Amino acid sequence: MGNELHFLIQSMAWPLVLLAAWAVGDVAYNRWHIPRVSSYVAVGMVVGTVNLPNLTPDIAGLPFLADVALALVLFELGYRINLRWFRANPWVLLAGVVESLLTFAVVFWLLGLLDDFRLHVRLAVAALAMASSPAGILRVVHELRSTGQVTERVMHLTAINCLLSVLALKLVMGSRTFRVSGDWMEAAFGSLHVLATSVAVGMLLGFLVPKLLKGRMHAASEGATVVFALAVLLLVTAASGLKLSPLLAALTFGIVARERRVHLTQTQRNFGSAGDLLSVFLFVYVASLLDWNDVFASIELGLWLVVARSAVFVAVNMATARVSGITYRKGLMTGLALTPMSAFVVLMVGQSGVVGFDLAERTLSTIAGMVLVLELFGPLVTQRALMAAREAHVSHDS
Q1: Is residue 278 part of a domain?
Q2: pLDDT tens, position by position, for the chain (398 residues)?
Q3: Total count of domains within the chain
Q4: Is 8 inside any structural domain?
Q5: Residue-range definition of the domain harbouring residue 296
Q6: pTM, 2 dp
Q7: In a domain? residue 292
Q8: How far apart are CA 89 and CA 267, in angstroms?
């Protein structure tokens, strides 16, 4: 009887937690206008305190499911990127590159100033700090049905930040390989191979799937959503098996699909109810991975990093506001809206551990406090920034 009860708890734990997270998020959003993703994170933190992952040892596919959930988000983010906009307004591209590189430099310097971290941990944390959270930002944009200059800039800048963060982390891993093995060819080939092949796989699907849609069905039909979702699932499976970056491949897939003139309707974005469910799981799962001992140990450092990172984003976007065609106020709102940093970073850390590096555990413990703050409060900052920019089309008047 005891074994049967234990098995029942194992089987029902995650579905019950996800249902609770959805309910808490719905109530908090409708009553206090708190972004749903912040509530999902809060539930995930509670889950982490009772060590739910250890209650479900037989569910080995949770990390893979999290990769699929985030890959769907990154595909949608890539789909919303208009490369022609960068040619028409190169200041947006420049702002994204500058804010990423400056964030890397400031965080690297601050880590050396505040504590005695090892070089590769400082480099890895600085690389991760460059990235905003595509999942958190997109969820807030969907909730608000936000459109406008600030919203579009935030989408494009998030894509740039994520791409450069992946590139920087792969270079850090390559330098680590060189330091351990002394073989620069192995180090260079390992990092460049992963980056180039991940992009190539994403581009291949970006060319093939639109051809399939044009030949079989109207691109705006509901079938297009299913085909893209299945393609993302295939991509993540292949990338995991080949030790590539499913996140980079999914982002590339979305960008190329957009350039191939395949258009999804507003109702098909976020992949419908399946996307909503995977979003709940993603934020609960990622938050449950945080170790509370690491959070408490790194919270002071995390607050310093949050302030430094936010200051860079705001300063760069305000500095380039006028020359890029917006007001200083909208530049401020753009910088603030880039605040979230969560699932993308945590899953990237996990993938660095998969390929045999010991950076993962030390890096995650270092940024645990920063991730907690930005997971919980980042979406709220994004929400208020988009509302202040008057680009939200959902009323929150009481």
Answers
A1: yes
A2: 556 666 666 667 788 889 999 999 999 999 999 999 999 999 988 887 766 555 555 566 788 888 899 999 999 999 888 888 888 899 999 999 999 999 999 999 999 888 778 888 888 899 999 999 899 999 999 999 999 999 999 999 999 999 999 888 888 877 766 565 555 555 565 667 778 888 999 999 988 888 777 755 544 556 677 888 889 999 999 888 887 888 889 999 999 988 876 555 544 566 777 888 888 999 998 888 888 888 888 898 899 999 999 999 999 999 999 999 999 999 999 999 999 987 778 777 666 554 444 566 677 788 888 988 888 899 999 999 999 999 987 765 54
A3: 1
A4: no
A5: 17-388
A6: 0.89
A7: yes
A8: 29
User: 254 lies in a domain?
Assistant: yes
CATH number at residue 168: 1.20.1530.20
